[in-house]
Predict the 3D structure of the following.
Amino acid sequence: MITLASDFGTPYPAAMKGVILQRTDARLVDVAHDFPRQDVRAAAFWLREVLPYYPPATHLVVVDPGVGTDRDALVVRAGEHVLVGPDNGVLRPVAPRLASDGALEAYVVDETEIGSVVPASTGWTPETTDGPASNTFHGRDVFAPTAADVHETGLEDLDSLESLSPVDVEATVDCELPAATVDGDRATGEVLVVDDFGNAITNVPGSFLEGREQVDVGGETVPVGDTFAAVSVGERLVTVGSHSYVELDVNQGRGDEAFGLEVGDGVVLEGT
Amino acid sequence: MITLASDFGTPYPAAMKGVILQRTDARLVDVAHDFPRQDVRAAAFWLREVLPYYPPATHLVVVDPGVGTDRDALVVRAGEHVLVGPDNGVLRPVAPRLASDGALEAYVVDETEIGSVVPASTGWTPETTDGPASNTFHGRDVFAPTAADVHETGLEDLDSLESLSPVDVEATVDCELPAATVDGDRATGEVLVVDDFGNAITNVPGSFLEGREQVDVGGETVPVGDTFAAVSVGERLVTVGSHSYVELDVNQGRGDEAFGLEVGDGVVLEGT
Amino acid sequence: MITLASDFGTPYPAAMKGVILQRTDARLVDVAHDFPRQDVRAAAFWLREVLPYYPPATHLVVVDPGVGTDRDALVVRAGEHVLVGPDNGVLRPVAPRLASDGALEAYVVDETEIGSVVPASTGWTPETTDGPASNTFHGRDVFAPTAADVHETGLEDLDSLESLSPVDVEATVDCELPAATVDGDRATGEVLVVDDFGNAITNVPGSFLEGREQVDVGGETVPVGDTFAAVSVGERLVTVGSHSYVELDVNQGRGDEAFGLEVGDGVVLEGT
């Protein structure tokens, strides 16, 4: 199984799938292709929250503002899972949740060993190629064929792939998601992401809300609810989301707008 | 085969897929994940129009404004199909189209019998869990594993699932789509949904247009056409959509805007 | 394998998939369902850029402003690939890239030979059907079942399908993408499409940029870069995209807005 995640919209992911399907008949599952553009931190957050619900798989991740620069292409083995994507931190936050024993192995991809991504049978080749890969679409030319090759090769034999060279995991880029500070009745954090419902997801651990019926947010008292329906339609609430963090929400509405918050904004919650 | 429909956007459906794929290798097919948010009626309409074109399958439906409240999670067997989703009416309108003999069987899901949705192999468990399911993401924690279990168990053996208890179908919530009134040359209905093209789909049966070359809509005469191309590009027309209802459309444009109509607005059509 | 491409949004593609899956258990892969509405040229461009990366497959394409008119439904065999869609030109630009020897074979689809798209097992039939197909949804009623039948029949036996009649490829509609004019240091072209990143993709061949460090665009000098990261975040650049054409881009921003360009706008590039 190969999962795919990117900020590509359409139809670029379809080109990646074509390349993969030349090399393997693995099941393909889309995680998302509308991650916030070139926002490594947001993608890292969502991958950390979604991929641990998968059975062992190869996960192809392309959120890559540095495409074409000298940033490396990485393969990271985490337990029975393998992550494939750019060395910009996006692969790191999810890895410890995929590896029961904390053991990670990393490899750098040698683009010159990947081989052609165009099927020979059609007789067509792209007009301009200055090398083994385009400078602007490594998803298609580097990461997709690597994910397919990793899947076909299998976890135990990654060392046998000509295109992979071991590298120290600690030498790869990490994307640390900021931690909130909880001090008694006061939690200071920030909005990590806003989901498609408009829920403003913070980095404050859900445990902060235990035993509280209301909290102050920006000087106003907001009820704590177990469910959206704990408040009337259109009303604000503070709740623990499915990822165990405090969310600022509106029942059947958008929390980000009602609280006036965007990704990266600071949030202070005070117990009352 | 398991189909998936929700109002989740991304990437939440991908978490549901991960949970499902831990339990089954069924084919997964997305129906839509951008149904109008928490609009049970719109989802019920689209499911009624789309699912009857499928071969026998398990259909996972999560449009669930009451998530975390005491509304039940349901499994409804309809002929060779099975529907899984919340007891809020969304599953009911499509059911008679899936069951040739009208025989439906319903079950309530016992969340405590579903088991873990996190793979044991990774060693990771979510930080905060007050019970068998989160309060805000039953798609992942209740409906997805149930759909997988139903698929694996098979139609004939649903009674053997510990998590299911039979319930009278008539005791479940129905979502009745409003009917139009046709009185000779006058049809009074409403806009049920607006599709992605901007076509305003009403509940007036297409048969009302038989033999008519034009109708009055809101005091203006509009041509009846068999095809969008029956009128010039940008012109309005009234036609019978692919679901057999009267649509108010614009050739290569948006009917909702040209007619000034939104979902739920009343529509009066008069033959001339 | 059957790929699907359309301008349908959701959930209409799901109805096509249901019809296909009644007839075949082929793998289904979505190319895109958000092509610009009824824009045959844009769809033709994207298909030409994406489908050549696929292994042999059946490609279902429905961008069909003439649905319900007397335009034909086509099947075009191109090498080991088969294209299925309306005779409006959308299938033609990609075909030569799929057929190594340039040999194409075309067939017209007889809608009366397709058979029912509703499963008999449910006992349900749509209320209004004036014939073998709706007038507004040939994707579901004509193209989807044809793609499934073509896949099941196989390349070598297309002539055996009752629903197909051979037709001269040259008698089908072509959609010629406009060519740019390159005259020494001056290239005159137009914006073919704008992708989801906002990159304005022109029809000027990438080779025009070889050896140039900057070009004049609309009177302003813009750097030529190999990668987005060749300029600072938010800055404009001219580069060769993954499809080998000149793109007008912004590093981590929208090129279309920064250059004030829309699809179809003329573009003049001058070497300096």
